[in-house]
Amino acid sequence: QVQLVESGGGLVQPGGSLRLSCAASTSIFRFYSMAWGRQAPGKQRELVATITSGGSANYADSVKGRFTISRDNAKNTVYLQMNRLKPEDTAVYYCRGSFAGTESWGQGTQVTVSS
Question: Are 80 and 89 in contact (CB under 8 A)?
Fold first, then answer.
């Protein structure tokens, strides 16, 4: 299965921005559907953004208009640009890769939105 490593998390004030990155260790990254999910303390993990191998993106209503998912197949990397962050966006953010019936998750990166 593909190995996924997230980076870019941290502490940010409300209204601020962060960009998360997820590097994939596979030569066929371009065929993978990718996604970002998050899990806040005491809550179930939820998907916030997905992007197909063809580049079509979808977003959860809670982040639509604030978050943007993108991918760079030359770098085997998927990104999540997060703008106008809110305290309720605080969570561990995970990257997911899916291909041919398989699914892999990264270890996650913490995002904390607080003043």
Answer: no
Q: Give pLDDT, residue 1.
A: 82
Give the residue from 24, 22, 34 showing the smallest Cα distance to 79.
Answer: 22
Contact criterion met (CB below 8 Å) for 37 and 47: yes
DSSP character string of 94-109: EEEEEETTEEEE---E
Which residue ranges of the chain lie beneath pLDDT 70? none
Distance CA 5, CA 21 (A): 8
User: What's the CA gap between 100 and 84, in Å, rounded?
Assistant: 35
DSSP reduced 3-state for 14: coil
Q: Which residues pair with 105 in a beta bridge?
A: 96
Residue 110 pLDDT: 98
How many other CB atoms are found less than 10 A from the CB of residue 107? 11
